[in-house]
Target: 2-isopropylmalate synthase
Amino acid sequence: MNKLLIFDTTLRDGEQAAGASLNIQEKLEIARALEALGVDIIEAGFPVTSPGDFEAVKRIAAEIRGCTVCGLARANPKDIDRAWEALQKARDPRIHVFISSSEVHMVHQLKKSREEVLSLARDMVARAKGYCSNIEFSPMDASRSDPQFIYALLEAVIDAGATTLNIPDTVGYAMPFEFGGLIEGIFNNVPNIDRAVISVHCHDDLGLSVANSLEAVRRGARQVECTVNGIGERAGNAALEEVVMAISTRPDLYDVTTSINTELIYPTSRLVSQRTGFPVQPNKSVVGANAFRHQSGIHQDGVIKMPKTYEIMDPKTVGVPASSLVLGKLSGRHAFKERLAELGYNLSECDFDRAFAAFKELADKKKEVTDRDIESLVAEEQRTVIEAYHLDRLQVTCGDRGIPTAAVRLIGPGGKVLEDAALGTGPVDAVYKAINRLVGVPNRLTEFSITSITAGIDAIGEVFIRIESEGVSYSGRGADTDVIVSSAKAYMNALNRLLAVRMNGQAKTPSGTVN
Ligand SMILES: CC(=O)SCCNC(=O)CCNC(=O)[C@H](O)C(C)(C)COP(=O)(O)OP(=O)(O)OC[C@H]1O[C@@H](n2cnc3c(N)ncnc32)[C@H](O)[C@@H]1OP(=O)(O)O
Ligand SMILES: CC(C)C(=O)C(=O)O
Ligand SMILES: [Mg+2]
Model:
C-alpha cells in the first residue's frame, strides 16, 4: 500500500496548544479548509471534554463528507459513548481510543497494572467497535514503553477490532533511529499486524517530530498524524506541511504519495494562524514568511540565473505565488538590477552605479529596502543636477529645552570645504540658515512638505520644497531615513537648480517655475 494517510489533528492536539482555543465556528471553518486540502482523516476534537467541543465534533461530523471524521476517547465507557454520540452522523466516523502503556504513566497516573491496562484497552476497543467499524487505538507514551508490552497490547486490540494502531511519541523523546526501530519491531512481533494500518503521532519537544514521522514511514507506517503549522501540546506536533512536502520533494527516498492538494498548504496555514492567533515564525519551513525569500547576493544571483540553485521546492506548489529577492545590505548588483528592471527602470551604467551606491548606503540603515524605497532612491539620483554645492555633513542639536542649532559642511566649487553653524527656530530652520551662510544666495522658502514614503520606524521620509528667488520658483526634493537630512537634501537640490539656471540660463516655464 503506497498511499500515506494524512490524519490531521489540528482541531484536537493542535487545539491543546496553550492559548489556541477555537470556538465552534472557527473549528468548522478549519475543518472545511482541511477537507479541501485533502487530508484523509480529521480528528475534530475530544467530545467528552466540554459541551462546546462535543458540539463542534457533532457539527463537523454532520457536515464534512470528503474525509473520515474522528473523535478522541479515553479508555472508559463514558468517553467512548460521548464520542459516538458526537460522531454518529459522519459519513465515515472513527473513534480513537487511547490508554497509556509506559511504566511511568501506568504506575503514577493511571495507577493500574499492565494486565489491567491490557484488559481495559481490549474491552474499550470492543465497546467502540460496537458503534462503528473504523477504530483507532493509541498506546500513549509508546516510545517510553516496554516494546514487549506494546506488542501484546497491539495484538489484543487488533483482535478486539482496532483497524489503525497509532504509535505516539507523546513527549517527543525518541530519536529517529530508535523510533524507526520501534515501528519495525511492531511489524516483526505483532502476529496479526497485517489486519491494521500503523500510524505515528510525534511531538516536537526535541525538534524531531517530522524526522521521527518520516523514519516511521520508511519503516512501513502508512498514516502520519500531524497538525497545520505544527501546533499542539507543548512544543507541538509534526507539521503537516513539512511531512507532506518532505515526501513530495524526495520521491527518491519515500515510496508513498498523499492526497494533499499542496497548493492549499499556504492558505490553510494562514487560516490556522489567524484563527488560533499563533503567528508563524518567519523561518518556519514551507510556510514561514522567509521560506521562499532570498536575501544574500550570492543566493539572489543564483536564483535569478536558475531558481533550482537555491530552491528545492517551487513556491507555487505550496500556494506561495512566487519566491522573492529581499533587497538589503547583503544584496548584490545582480539582484538590484533585476528589481530595477521589474520596476521599469533602465538606467545607464553610470546612473546604475550611483543608484547602487545609494542603495547600499540606505541598506546599511534599513533592515529591508522596499520597492518604494528604490523608486524614491532612483528618483533622487535622476533629479540630481550637477551640484555646485554638495552636502557633506550635517549635525543638529534640538529638543524642548535646547536652542535648535545646526552645523553643516558643504563641498563647494573646486572641492572647497565650507563649514558653518547657525541657530534657528527649529532644526530645519537652523539647517537652512547654516546653508544660506555658506551658499549666500538670497531666497525665500515658499513651500515645505514631508511625506513618509515607506512604512515602519525606519521609513524613508521625502521632503518637497519650493524656494523663490528673483521672481522665479525652484523645487527641490530629498529623501532619507532622517527627516532633517531629507530637508537639507531638498534645500541643496533646490539651491543647486537655482545656481544651475543662473549659470546656464536654463529656460523657465511661463509661470516662472523650474520644476
Ligand atoms: C497525550 C494527549 O494529548 S492526551 C489528551 C489530552 N487532552 C485533554 O486532556 C483534553 C482536555 N481535558 C479535559 O477536559 C479533562 O482533563 C477531561 C474531561 C478529559 C477529564 O477530566 P477529569 O475527569 O476532571 O479528570 P482529570 O483531567 O483531572 O484527570 C484525568 C483522569 O483521566 C485518567 N486517564 C488519563 N488518560 C486516560 C486514558 N487514556 N484512559 C483512561 N483514563 C485515563 C487519569 O488517570 C485521571 O483519572 P483519575 O481521575 O481516576 O485519577
Ligand atoms: C492521544 C494521543 C495519541 C496523543 O495525543 C499523544 O500521545 O501525544
Ligand atoms: Mg499528542
